[in-house]
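Feature request, filed as a ticket because there's no other form

It would be nice if the structure record came with a short human-readable summary line next to the C-alpha cells. Right now we just get the raw output. Example of a typical job, pasted below so the devs can see what we mean:
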Amino acid sequence: MVGGGYALDRVLSRTIEANFDDQLERVLNGMIAASEIGPEGEVRFTRPPADQRFLEPYSGAYFQISGAGQETFPSRSLWDRQLRADQRHTTSSCTGATASSSRASRCGSSSGT
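Raw output as currently delivered:
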C-alpha cells in the first residue's frame, strides 16, 4: 500500500512538472517569435503576448527581460514591480528572457523594497 502510494505520488509529480515545463517552453517560444532587437540593443515585441495574463496587472503570470547595460523590460502584469533574479542571472555576460509564474518567483518593488 505504501509503495503504491509513493509510486502514484511520483507519477503525478512528474506529470505536473512536465506539464509546467511544456507550458513554459510554449510561452518562451512565443515571446522569442514575437520579439526583435532594436538598433540600440533593446528588446521590442512586434505583437502583444498571446497569453492575456501577461497584460493584466497582478494576474500571477509574469515575465521580465533583462540585459547587461539595458533597461529592464517587465510584463504589464508586473505593473510597478520587478522580479528578483538570482545573482547568476544578472551577470554582465547574461542576456535573456525569464518567464515566471507567481509560484516560481517572488516579486520586489521597483524601488528596491
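Something like this underneath would help us a lot:
The chain has one domain: 2-109.
The mean pLDDT is 77.
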